[in-house]
């Protein structure tokens, strides 16, 4: 009997990060979209869920002015992110934590002005529970920033690759219950700025 590891679990991600796998870099166009859709941080707390190598958390901290915490379920990803903190000034707080299952009271702040989720939402097994956790942590007037692939946008005939993004039902679940939903497309990706 074959068992499959959940793509939302540390058991799935840790071997990939530990073996040197790297993912889509933060590009200039995506940075420009953040500048258009996100407020300046002014020292307010931000949380980067699934922070990976820490590029987004560092951008939020150093360029947009948030006091950022980066969390990832992979110890190797957190170690990689922390190892890149070589410059002067405050650095993001790094924490190995599984957002889907861990006790969120261990986070540095009880609420966040910005919660970012880049290339993570589609991997969540229980998206409704994931979104409930985001709603509980997002401060009033805050922003939930999501960057995710949309299914069927890749130019390929490989059905495994065509189905990598979120479905229309996943997108509807993501955008339901927010007072403001703004989107911007970035190739196969869609960026969402969601406000309660």
Molecular structure report:
- There is one protein chain.
- It is globular and about 45 Å long.
- It has seven helices and seven strands, in the order ααβαβαββαβααββ.
- The N and C termini lie far apart (45 Å).
- The longest helix has 11 residues, at 127-137.
- Strands 3-2-1-4-5-7-6 form a seven-stranded mixed β-sheet.
- The protein is α/β, with parallel strands linked by helices.
Q: How can the largest sheet be summarized?
A: 7 strands, mixed
The whole-angstrom Rg is 16 Å
Class computed from helices, strands and strand pairing = alpha/beta
Query: Main sheet: which strands, in order across?
Result: 3-2-1-4-5-7-6
Strand content: 15-25%
Helix tally?
Answer: 7
Order of helices and strands: HHEHEHEEHEHHEE
Mean pLDDT: 91
For the termini, the CA-CA separation is: 45 Å
Poorly predicted tracts of residues: none
List the helices and strands and how they pair.
Layout lengths: L9 H9 L9 H10 L7 E5 L5 H8 L4 E6 L2 H9 L9 E4 L15 E7 L8 H11 E12 L9 H4 L5 H8 L4 E7 L2 E7 L1
Parallel strand pairs: 1-2, 1-4, 2-3, 4-5
Antiparallel strand pairs: 5-7, 6-7
Task: Please give a handful of descriptors for the protein shown.
30% helix, 196 residues, alpha/beta
Describe the structure concisely.
With 196 residues, the protein is an alpha/beta fold. The chain has helices at 10-18, 28-37, 55-62, 75-83, 127-137, 159-162, 168-175; strands at residues 45-49, 67-72, 93-96, 112-118, 138-149, 180-186, 189-195.
């Amino acid at each position: 009997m074959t068992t499959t590891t959940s793509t939302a679990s540390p058991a799935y991600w840790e071997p990939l990060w530990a073996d040197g796998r790297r993912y889509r870099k933060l590009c200039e166009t995506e940075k420009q979209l953040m500048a258009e859709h996100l407020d300046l941080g002014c020292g307010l707390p931000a949380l980067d869920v699934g922070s990976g190598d820490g590029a987004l958390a560092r951008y939020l901290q150093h360029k947009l002015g948030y006091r950022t915490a980066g969390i990832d379920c992979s110890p190797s990803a957190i170690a990689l992110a922390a190892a890149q903190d070589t410059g002067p000034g405050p650095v993001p707080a790094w924490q190995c934590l599984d957002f889907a299952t861990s006790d969120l009271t261990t986070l540095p702040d009880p609420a966040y002005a910005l919660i970012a989720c880049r290339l993570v939402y589609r991997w969540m097994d229980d998206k409704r529970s994931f979104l409930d956790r985001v709603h509980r942590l997002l401060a009033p007037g805050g922003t939930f920033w999501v960057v995710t692939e949309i299914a069927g946008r890749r130019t390929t005939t490989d059905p495994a690759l065509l189905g990598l993004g979120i479905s229309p039902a996943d997108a509807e679940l993501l955008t339901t219950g927010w007072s403001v939903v703004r989107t911007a497309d970035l190739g196969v990706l869609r960026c969402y700025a969601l406000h309660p």
